[in-house]
């Protein structure tokens, strides 16, 4: 670990210790796992909270449980309720606000109930510059973000995770399944399961960095450009088509631009009238 990173990490641990008893939103991803380890190493009283939801891939939930067990972390599981909120289900441009508002409301209520002083999440420096309506909910509920406060970006977190032996250090980003739906398309359980099944099939075939975007009855596959030749090979291509058709997609397309996180945010200027 470089001296600069070591200093920054130790400063973050000091910041965490000043927060009293801490409740942390934990998903098993790169950022929240690193934060969970930091809480453990800080020695401050803490509890991790995994919020399960139909929008969370089952594999992510299982990974979160497994990682928490490997770290011998103090964690509990609660259920989230964003699918009961029509504001979320209708999938507006600020969909993430309603999801995070539900989560942080539950966490702050839990913190009051169990006498925790501070609720924290894994927001990083990079997240502050992106389109993330969920940050409004974070601020509304006074949730702290130790990683961002310490000035850690995702590259630094991955490097520190690698050095500390966390197997999540190179884990691909895995946002909730609702992010696969075009804004304005209603988020329903059947569609979530369809997307999850489609992505699981691609992972089963050996693809790692991917998205399956749902646009009505069309599945739009995003892969790394280097993976294009392989998905077009037989029998892989036919296996993908057969599975996607079996689970209900009428049309299966390959996005020629390749994988890009947050690509559906291109629709935002269209919806807000910034483009004609």
What can you see in these coordinates?
The protein has 276 residues and is α/β, with parallel strands linked by helices. It has two domains: 3-170, HUPs (Rossmann fold, 3-Layer(aba) Sandwich); 177-271. Helices cover 44% and strands 13% of the residues. The chain has twelve helices and seven strands. It has helices at 3-17, 30-42, 58-70, 86-89, 95-113, 134-140, 146-149, 154-163, 189-204, 228-231, 236-246, 267-271, and strands spanning 22-25, 46-52, 75-79, 118-120, 210-215, 218-223, 251-254. The strands form two sheets. Strands 3-2-1-4 form a four-stranded parallel sheet, with helices on both faces. A three-stranded mixed sheet has the order 5-6-7, covered by helices on one side. Strand 5 (210-215) and strand 6 (218-223) form a beta hairpin. Helix 1 (3-17) packs across helix 2 (30-42) and helix 5 packs parallel to helix 6 (134-140). The chain is globular and about 55 Å long. Mean pLDDT is 93; it is low at 270-276.
Tags for this entry?
about 280 residues; alpha/beta; Rossmann fold; 2 domains; four-stranded parallel beta sheet; three-stranded mixed beta sheet; 12 helices; 7 strands; about 45% helix; globular; disordered C terminus
Give, in order, the helices and strands.
HEHEHEHHEHHHHEEHHEH
Gross morphology: globular
Largest sheet properties: 4 strands, parallel
Instruction: Classify the secondary structure makeup into a structural class.
Output: alpha/beta
Strand content: 5-15%
Work out the number of β strands.
Answer: 7
Tally of alpha and pi helices: 12
Widest beta sheet: strand line-up: 3-2-1-4
């Amino acid at each position: 670990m470089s001296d600069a990173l070591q200093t920054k990490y130790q400063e973050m641990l000091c910041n965490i210790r000043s927060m009293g008893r801490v409740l942390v939103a934990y998903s098993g991803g790169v950022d929240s796992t690193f934060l969970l380890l930091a809480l453990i190493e800080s020695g401050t009283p803490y509890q991790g909270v995994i919020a399960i939801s139909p929008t969370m891939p089952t594999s992510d939930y299982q990974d979160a449980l497994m990682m928490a067990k490997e770290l011998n972390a103090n964690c509990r599981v609660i259920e989230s309720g964003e699918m009961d909120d029509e504001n979320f289900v209708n999938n507006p441009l600020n969909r993430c606000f309603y999801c995070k508002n539900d989560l942080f409301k539950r966490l702050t209520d839990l913190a009051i109930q169990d006498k925790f002083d501070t609720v924290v999440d894994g927001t990083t420096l990079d997240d502050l510059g992106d389109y993330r309506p969920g940050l409004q909910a974070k601020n509304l509920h006074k949730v702290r973000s130790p990683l961002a406060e310490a000035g850690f970006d995702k590259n630094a977190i991955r490097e520190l995770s690698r050095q500390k032996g966390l197997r999540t250090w190179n884990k691909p980003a895995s946002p909730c399944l609702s992010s696969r739906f075009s804004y304005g398309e209603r988020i329903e359980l059947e569609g979530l399961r369809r997307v999850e099944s489609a992505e699981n099939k691609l992972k089963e075939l050996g693809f790692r960095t991917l998205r399956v975007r749902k646009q009505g009855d069309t599945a739009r596959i995003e892969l790394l450009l280097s993976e294009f030749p392989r998905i077009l090979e037989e029998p892989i291509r036919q296996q993908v088509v057969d599975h996607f058709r079996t689970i209900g997609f009428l049309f299966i397309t390959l996005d020629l631009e390749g994988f890009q996180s947050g690509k559906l945010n291109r629709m935002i200027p269209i919806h807000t009238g910034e483009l004609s």
